[in-house]
Amino acid sequence: MKTMKWLLQREFWEHKGAFLFAPLAVAAVLVVLIGGGFLYGMATTNGATFQIEGQHMVAIEGIPHQMRGKLADIVASSYLAVSAPLFLVLPAVVFFYCLAALYDDRRDRSILFWKSLPLSDQQTVLSKVVTALLVVPLLTIAIGIAAALILLVLGLAVGAAKGMNLIAPVLADVNLYLSPLYLLSFLPLYILFALPTVGWLLMVSAWARSKVFLWAVGTPLVAVVILKWVDFLLGRFGGMTLNVDWFVDEVVARGLGGLFPGVWLAELDNTTLQHMEHGLNGGLLLAHSYGTLATPGVWLGAIAGAAMIFAAMRLRRWRDEG
C-alpha cells in the first residue's frame, strides 16, 4: 500500500502542470470572465429580463414568490454547469498522459533506473491506471466545484445588489448540497467507460518504438478506412455488406472517445429532457446514466480495457529499448 502511495505521488509530482495547474488555469479564466461579467452587469444595468413559463418580466424587483422559488431551484441545481469547460480539458490531459506514461521511460532510458528498484511492472502500470482514472478526475472535480461555488457566490451577491435576493431560497434548496455528490456519483461510470481508452493508450505506449500518437489514433482510423473500402467492394460486386458502422460506433468511438465525461448521455431522450425544465435533475441523470450498465457493450469494453492493461504490463517487462 505504501508503495502504491509513493508511485501515485511520483506521478502527481512529475505531471503536476497538467494535472493541477492546467485545470486551475481554466478555472481562473472562468472565474475572471464570468465573475467579471457579473460585476460589470451590476455596475452598468438597472434591471434584467427573465422569461419564466411564458411570463415576460423586465424588472427583477418584486418577483412573485413562486417565480423566485423556481429561479432559485434552477440556480441551485445547475450551478455546477459553469465548470463544464474543465471537463473538456480532462480528456486531453488523460489522453496525452497515458500516451507518454510508458513510452517516455523507454525513450529516455529511465526505465533502467525504475527497474532497478523493488517495483514490479504490475505496480508501475497500475499506478498509472489509478492516476488516469481516479486521481486526475478527482482533482478536476474538486477544482470545478470550487470554481462553481465562487461564481455562485458572486452571482447571488450581484442578484441581491440588483434587488433579486435569492440567497435564502438557494441556501435552503437541497440541490445545492446534492449537486457535488451527484457529480462524484458519475465517477464509477467514467471509470468504466474510460477503461478501454486508457487500456489501449497504455498498451500502445508500452509497445510503440516511436510515433506513439500516430499508432494510437492512426491504427483504428486506418482500420475504418480499410473496412469501408472492403464494404464498398463487397456491396458493389458481391451483393454483401459489412456492419462497419457497428465497428465505428462500438469499437473505434468507444476506444478513442471514452475519456469524455458524460459520453453515456449521448442518447438522452426528449422525455428525460422535459423533466429538467427547472434545472438539471441530478437524480434523473444518474438513473439514466446507470441504466446504461444494462447494455453488454459497457462490460465488454471494460473487459477489453482490463485485458489491454494486462498486455501493457507484459510488454513493459521486456520492451525496454530506447
What's a quick, concise take on this entry?
By secondary structure, this protein is an all-alpha fold. It has 15 helices and two strands.
Q: What would you report as the Rg, rounded to the nearest angstrom?
A: 24 Å
Total number of domains = 1
SSE string, helix = H, strand = E? HHEEHHHHHHHHHHHHH
Show unreliable segments: 55-62
Query: Treating each run of at least 4 consecutive H or I residues as one helix, how many helices?
Result: 15
Strand order of the largest sheet: 1-2
- Counting helices, strands and paired strands, the structural category is mainly alpha
Helix content: over 70%
Averaging pLDDT over every residue, what do you get? 83
> Could you tell me the strand content as a percent range?
under 5%
Which quaternary structure do these chains form? single chain
Biggest beta sheet attributes: 2 strands, antiparallel
Shape: globular
**Alpha-carbon distance between the two ends:** 30 Å
Number of strands: 2
Could you please describe the fold and organization of this structure?
It is a single chain. It contains 15 helices and two strands. With 322 residues, it is mainly alpha-helical. The chain has one domain. Helix 2 (16-44) runs antiparallel to helix 4 (86-101) and helix 4 (86-101) packs parallel to helix 10. Mean pLDDT is 83; it is low at 55-62.
